[in-house]
Write a structure and sequence with these properties.
Oligomer: single chain
Structural class: alpha/beta
Length: about 210
């Protein structure tokens, strides 16, 4: 009796693991001041989202450190990384604290603060999202901004494959029978395995 191998592929595009948003950049020191900052604009890029209150000194200090981090990335010619500060409109009277501290985009969530709740964010949380819109780091950084660790993580994520289609094993931006052939060859050991050949993330190619 013949055995039939069946492969099921999920067709999907860039998909955030949390809520999307589109808010105006309100940082007058930012190059994108007045423009809409939207998660959908960051497809295929690494993004860092920092949540804090405009009127708290520690929140402002950490925002400034993130802005300096962003400037260092620009100096290293890493253009596919975005850093965004997310506050609340109830503290807009203290916005100048962040404007004076850094030049990265700032957006203000409005009551009932759905962006914060959709992301499950708390004050001084830093969330890093990879090119596929998946959260790869979610930590409260009240104890400090671990520059070296975050830099290494961001560089690793920036160097990951930009393949955004589950099942696109050969990287041609399509999911078709050629990917099945490629996966079979990986399983048989005919060609080297790549990370995107592990479709279910179990560490195996099967």
């Amino acid at each position: 009796m013949k055995k039939i191998l069946c492969f099921a592929f999920i067709f999907c595009s860039f998909n955030f693991a949390q809520g999307e948003f589109s808010l105006e950049d309100i940082n007058s020191s930012s190059q994108s001041f007045g423009q809409t900052i939207s998660t959908s604009n960051f497809e295929g890029q690494v993004s860092l989202y920092y949540f804090g209150h405009f009127n708290w000194g520690l929140c402002t200090s950490l925002f400034g450190q993130l802005s300096d981090f962003s400037n260092d990335l620009e100096l290293s010619d890493e253009e596919n990384v975005n850093c965004i500060g997310i506050g609340k409109d109830s503290f807009l009277s203290s916005l100048n604290n962040w404007e004076n501290a850094g030049t990265i985009p700032i957006v203000a969530d409005s009551n009932p603060f759905s962006v914060w709740s959709d992301w499950g964010a708390g004050q001084r949380d830093l969330i890093i999202v990879d090119k596929k819109g998946q959260i790869r780091y979610n930590e409260n950084i009240s104890s400090g901004f671990d520059y070296d660790f975050i830099y290494d993580l961001v560089m690793d994520l920036a160097n990951e494959s930009n393949n955004t289609l589950t099942g696109d094993i050969n990287g041609d931006e399509m999911v078709n029978v050629l990917d099945v052939v490629t996966l079979v060859n990986v399983i048989l050991g005919s060609i080297p395995a790549t990370d995107n050949a592990d479709l279910n993330g179990d560490g195996l190619y099967n």
